[in-house]
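User: Teach me something about this protein's shape.
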Amino acid sequence: MGAQSYSALSALFILFYNGKRGYDKKWFRIFSYLFYPVHLILIWVVFALCFR
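Assistant: First, the predicted structure itself:
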């Protein structure tokens, strides 16, 4: 399955979008913004402990 086939699948999400915002609780927004840098730091720590 080529990369262009996945763009056809994404068209389904665009077609069924109803204009409403999704789940938007404050704790979930904070978690979403913190997850990425925290998981990168965790990966770095594990890497540093394994390969020092």
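Now, about its shape. The radius of gyration is 18 Å. The CA atoms of residues 6 and 12 lie 10 Å apart. If you'd like, I can walk through any region in more detail.
User: That's plenty for now, thanks!
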